[in-house]
């Protein structure tokens, strides 16, 4: 399809990025919610009050899930030419690049 027959062709990458970001956001939120719910249920048991390692593991898994979600959103929005350049991320990338160069 050319731009004349489809006036919205220039917005298609943005539309696709929004669909993917929405899908992964729902998936990530469901994952975080499930992990939090498991940790809360664990704390309602006598064993849960004695062994907080399970809660710590759930918190680490939540942190990792959120980081994956953040990375995905950065990648998707950058690919749709509407990305935000996170200065912290740019510093990490520069450090990795410097480390690889030796």
Textual characterization of the structure:
This protein has one domain (11-101). Helices cover 77% and strands 0% of the residues. It is built from 4 helices and no strands. The chain has helices at residues 12-43, 46-50, 53-79, 87-101. Helix 1 (12-43) runs antiparallel to helix 3 (53-79). The radius of gyration is 20 Å and the shape is flat. The chain starts with 11 loop residues before the first helix and ends with a helix.
Helix content: over 70%
* Class computed from helices, strands and strand pairing: mainly alpha
Q: What is the average per-residue confidence, as pLDDT, rounded to a whole number?
A: 83
- Could you give the distance between the termini? 48 Å
The helix-strand sequence is: HHHH
Keywords:
102 residues; mainly alpha; flat; single chain
Helix and strand arrangement:
Layout: H1 12-43, H2 46-50, H3 53-79, H4 87-101
Helix pairs in contact: 1-3
In short:
By secondary structure, this protein is an all-alpha fold.
């Amino acid at each position: 399809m050319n731009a004349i027959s489809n006036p919205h062709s220039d917005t298609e990458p943005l539309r696709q990025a929004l669909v993917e970001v929405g899908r992964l956001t729902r998936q990530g939120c469901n994952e975080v919610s499930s992990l939090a719910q498991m940790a809360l249920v664990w704390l309602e048991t006598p064993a849960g009050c004695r062994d907080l390692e399970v809660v710590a593991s759930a918190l680490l898994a939540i942190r990792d899930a959120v980081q994956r979600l953040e990375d995905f959103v950065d990648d998707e929005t950058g690919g749709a030419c509407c990305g935000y350049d996170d200065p912290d991320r740019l510093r990490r990338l520069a450090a990795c690049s410097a480390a690889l160069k030796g």
